[in-house]
Amino acid sequence: MDDLGFSADQVKSNAKDQARLDKRSHMLKMHQRFGLITAVPLVLTLFSGGLAGEHSTSSGGRNFHAALGATTVGLYATTAYFAIAAPKFAGTPTRGPIRLHKTLAWVHGTGMIMTSVLGMMAYNQKQNGQRVHGIASAHGAVGGITAVAYGLAIASVSLKF
Amino acid sequence: MRLPVAVPIALSLLAIVPVFPASAAGKDWQLQESTLTYHVSHPLHESEGVSHAARGKGVCNAGQCDFLVAAPVKSFDSGDSNRDLHMLQVTRGAEFPMITVRTKVPENAASSSSIKLDLEVQFAGHTVQYKQVPFQIVVKADQIRITGTVPATLTDFKIDPPSLLSFAVKNEIPVRLDMTWHQ
């Protein structure tokens, strides 16, 4: 083995790196699990959007939609944490479907923040008896785009294109 | 009276002795190029990881050659860096960074177009024997190309099957070897 020409670094066992790999895999498994769980309230939030547009200033449907949205954001943040905090390995360039997954994360990450802010604005406007107006009226569209980007992000690492 | 006879004999022996190491060295084999490919099946994916980083040698003695082929686990490239790092984790590639394959081949094996070999594979901290694995042999000038597939499985090496969306990969992970050796 010694005279095959491999460097000492190549053949040396590295328990520390193995521990980091184990931690990375565990965290990404949690990322995957929470990501799938998050998809459930996300879809329900989309479908309950129709209940939030009533003229009543204390709409139960609106509160239900808001509660689902808040649940989605909480689970989404947990999902994101596991991906962001997972150990990184220097010198390992990102290649393959994971590149699209990460690019889409920027889209749905931004979308999730914007949807929440716009949703709160729309909620307050409705609570004050106003019609949803201004930038808040983009809440539904931004939420839809966010959901599509999220679905594509899941598909990008689940299906082979 | 005997001395003049013994001297030429001794001289001729001295002349012959250096020939053996040179001859033996000429029969050793070096791995010139190689492609090692593992195949993994998942209900949603079929994927392959390829390594060209293997190195190997074959030392021949008394009609038999001992071959050793080794490759770093991290040298396998599936085209997906996330999958490669996960593969490295499940196979404990940082703890056991090398895959080695050892086998014995009769020195006259190049005279046939196929051969069955007993392999000893060290991987993921375990050593597994594969008996009578068929290989094809193509001889070209001073090169020999050997191809075959090691019928490896995850359970052979006590590797927990990775899963995606709760579906585990299949237990079979055949590894195709395509190696060109030269003397």
What report would you give on this structure?
The complex is a heterodimer of chains A (161) and B (183). Chain A is mainly alpha-helical. Chain A is 71% helix and 0% strand. Chain A contains 5 helices and no strands. In chain A, helix 2 (15-48) runs antiparallel to helix 3 (60-85) and helix 3 (60-85) packs antiparallel against helix 4 (97-127). The model of chain A has no long low-confidence stretch (mean pLDDT 91). With 183 residues, chain B is of the alpha+beta class. Chain B has one domain (27-182): Lipid/polyisoprenoid-binding, YceI-like (Lipocalin). Chain B is 17% helix and 50% strand. Chain B has helices spanning 3-16, 19-26, 81-90; strands at residues 29-42, 45-51, 55-61, 64-72, 98-106, 114-123, 126-140, 143-150, 163-164, 167-168, 175-182. Chain B has an 8-stranded antiparallel beta barrel with strand order 1-3-4-5-6-7-8-11. Chain B is elongated, with a radius of gyration of 22 Å. Chain B starts with a helix and ends with a strand. Mean pLDDT of chain B is 85; it is low at 1-25. Classes of the chains: A mainly alpha (161), B alpha+beta (183). At the A-B interface, helix 2 of A face strand 2, strand 3, strand 4 and helix 3 of B.
